Amino acid sequence: MSFLSRWWGQYRGILFLGVVSISTAWVVRQTQGELLSELYRVITLPFQGNPAQQQQLIAAKTWEQQQMIADLKAQNQNLKKLLDQPAVKQDVAIATPVIGRGADHWWQQIMVGQGSRAGIAEGAVVQAPGGLVGRVTKVTENTSRVLLITDPSSRLGATISRSRDMGILRGQSNKFAIIEFFEKDPDVRVGDSVVTSSLSRLFPAGVAIGTVQSLKLEQVSKPQAIVELSVPIANLEWVSVSFDGQNSTKKSALNP
């Protein structure tokens, strides 16, 4: 009897585990693994996510990729337009991205990603598809600051293409500018095209500026017209900078 007691005390733990194992195997066999499958489902449920949410995430990612492709196509088209645009006075013209623009002077100036290393100097003419953007006022080795024609301090000679009447165009910190005519009775109509004047000292003649949208010929001391600018200056991403090719040649000689 004492032998059985000692044997039981020594092996009862092993017997218990064996019974549990056999019972578990029998349950699994009888339920065809349903219990373990359910347990696995409960454990992994937090990691599976909601199917509807997964579909939303997939749709959102697809939309994001489509927008990226559309944006790249738009940038490619803009670059093609810049490359197709003739340089002012057949000078050198290079395309450069807009790399800086402050919210407090959005309509006043931009920073572009090319500078004296590329041959750009102060006074270089800046354009975009549609016409005139402004001129370079400060240059570093790799950047240039551009004064926009929308800046209220900007002044340039402008001409009505149809009648050749001239005036001074000044910015209004928006997509419109005002041209103040020299003549008291200018021949100007809504829809007339406006270009840079041959009398301008800052810009070459004939560069597109915009279109006359409204007239103020009697209400002010000097006749005026409101001009809608042809370049969407608020949304500039790339511009074309035209400058004297001799600057580029000199720069190349200094930096072979």
TrEMBL record:
<comment type="similarity">
    <text>Belongs to the MreC family.</text>
</comment>
<dbReference type="InterPro" id="IPR042177">
    <property type="entry name" value="Cell/Rod_1"/>
</dbReference>
<dbReference type="InterPro" id="IPR055342">
    <property type="entry name" value="MreC_beta-barrel_core"/>
</dbReference>
<dbReference type="GO" id="GO:0008360">
    <property type="term" value="P:regulation of cell shape"/>
</dbReference>
<dbReference type="InterPro" id="IPR007221">
    <property type="entry name" value="MreC"/>
</dbReference>
<protein>
    <recommendedName>
        <fullName>Cell shape-determining protein MreC</fullName>
    </recommendedName>
</protein>
<keyword id="KW-0133">Cell shape</keyword>
<dbReference type="Pfam" id="PF04085">
    <property type="entry name" value="MreC"/>
</dbReference>
<feature type="domain" description="Rod shape-determining protein MreC beta-barrel core">
    <location>
        <begin position="98"/>
        <end position="241"/>
    </location>
</feature>
<dbReference type="GO" id="GO:0005886">
    <property type="term" value="C:plasma membrane"/>
</dbReference>
<dbReference type="InterPro" id="IPR042175">
    <property type="entry name" value="Cell/Rod_MreC_2"/>
</dbReference>
